[in-house]
Design goal:
The complex is a heterodimer. Chain A is mainly alpha-helical. Chain A has a single domain (about 1-210), classed as Alpha Horseshoe (Serine Threonine Protein Phosphatase 5, Tetratricopeptide repeat). Helix content of chain A is about 75%, strand content about 0%. Chain A has helices spanning about 1-40, 50-65, 70-85, 90-105, 115-130, 140-155, 160-180, 185-190, 195-210. In chain A, helix 2 (about 50-65) runs parallel beside helix 4 and helix 4 (about 90-105) runs antiparallel to helix 5. Chain B is of the alpha+beta class. Chain B has one domain (about 20-115): Alpha-Beta Plaits. Chain B has 2 helices and 7 strands. Chain B has helices at about 20-30, 80-100, and strands at about 5-10, 10-15, 35-40, 50-55, 55-60, 65-75, 105-115. In chain B, strand 5 and strand 6 (about 65-75) form a beta hairpin. Chain B is elongated. The chains are: A mainly alpha, B alpha+beta.
């Protein structure tokens, strides 16, 4: 009985944490929206990548705000559905795949260590790459692949989740800079990729929100809710 | 083979074949996010049908623009309407960019939904 109570308390604390992380990603995207829109020269230079990412992450935040459920299976299904229905633009559709992969692979209980984080990113990467016949380099997909490589490399190191995310942000910054040279369209325009920039903005926001967040467990967890 | 006139010069016309236009469209479809294959080809027959090729049909409209019908296979689990909208904008942008011709209409037909092979 007291175990169930503790679980529910832990579940709602974690839901609150995930909400805070998603909200900070949304706020960061809203701040950077115009800058991301301005980078958008590929695949179609219509300057809407930032807005598409804002709309997609807003759908995620609204779904998180609406949920009271502590049943992980139902909650994950609702989240995936909300993202599917409300993803906007190519970058939004890819971000929805990324989030869905991570959510599906998130451990049901226990803190997120190096292996769990690497597994989540692998699933995100695979979901993102699974829906395109010929993936182009220098895109949000390249960024996702580099982040996954980083998570795999740091898997066995004894680091805290904050340190791991710091490492991911650092790798992401280098990867973003490289997109400039990876695609002829981007090098011609002299910009980095808009979608990759948007993903990094989310990651950086999550990383700093997590570092500043009150610790709810010995190791703060990105996982959603406990059973 | 039917072709569209790009330019008329004193030395002669510059033409682009419908096959070339279909190739350009097909090439951009390969990189479209959400598209994991091409359909079996448009079955609509029209008087102005120029060329049918691997899911891309190129039609010369009476007003002089190009009409495209794209038959595609979309990855399972994606928002079909959103993917179709991005396919439409990407392919018409690419065909217009490469040929300089006006793409008057793009019909996207989702033939199938499946996981990538």
């Amino acid at each position: 009985m007291s175990d169930t109570k503790t679980d529910l308390k832990a579940a709602s604390a974690e839901l609150a944490l995930v909400r805070r992380l998603a909200t900070s990603a949304l706020e960061a995207l809203e701040r950077e929206r115009q800058r991301i829109d301005g980078l958008n020269v590929y695949p179609v230079p219509d300057g809407d990548t930032g807005m598409n990412l804002v709309l997609t992450v807003r759908a995620l935040v609204e779904e998180l705000d609406a949920t009271e459920s502590s049943a992980p299976a139902a909650f994950r299904r609702d989240l995936a559905r909300a993202l599917l229905m409300r993803a906007r633009g190519t970058s939004g559709v890819i971000l929805a795949q990324i989030v869905r992969g991570a959510v599906e692979a998130a451990p049901v209980s226990g803190p997120i260590g190096g292996r769990a984080l690497a597994t989540m990113l692998e699933r995100s990467r695979d979901a993102a790459y699974s829906a395109v016949a010929k993936p182009a380099e220098g895109t949000i997909l390249t960024m996702m692949r580099e982040l996954t490589d980083e998570a795999r490399e740091q898997r066995r190191k004894g680091l805290s989740l904050e340190q791991r995310l710091d490492g991911l942000v650092e790798r992401g910054e280098a990867a973003l800079e490289r997109t400039r040279e990876q695609s002829p369209v981007l090098s011609e325009a002299g910009v980095v990729d808009a979608g990759a920039a948007g993903l990094l903005v989310c990651l950086r926001a999550i990383s700093s929100a997590l570092a500043g967040a009150p610790v709810v467990a010995p190791v703060p967890a990105l996982r959603l809710v406990s059973p | 083979m039917e072709a569209v006139q790009l330019q008329e010069t004193p030395l002669g016309q510059l033409l682009v074949s419908s096959r070339a236009i279909a190739q350009i469209a097909e090439h951009s479809l390969d990189e479209c996010y959400g598209v994991v294959g091409l359909g079996r080809g448009a079955r609509i027959r029209r008087a102005f049908a120029l060329r049918r090729r691997h899911g891309v049909e190129v039609i010369l409209s009476e007003q002089g623009g190009i009409e495209l019908t794209l038959a595609v296979v979309i990855a399972y689990g994606l928002n079909l309407a959103e993917v179709a909208a991005t396919v439409r904008s990407r392919v018409s942008y690419e065909v217009e960019r490469v040929t300089g011709l006006d793409v008057a209409r793009v019909e996207v037909r989702i033939d199938d939904v499946r996981h990538k092979d």
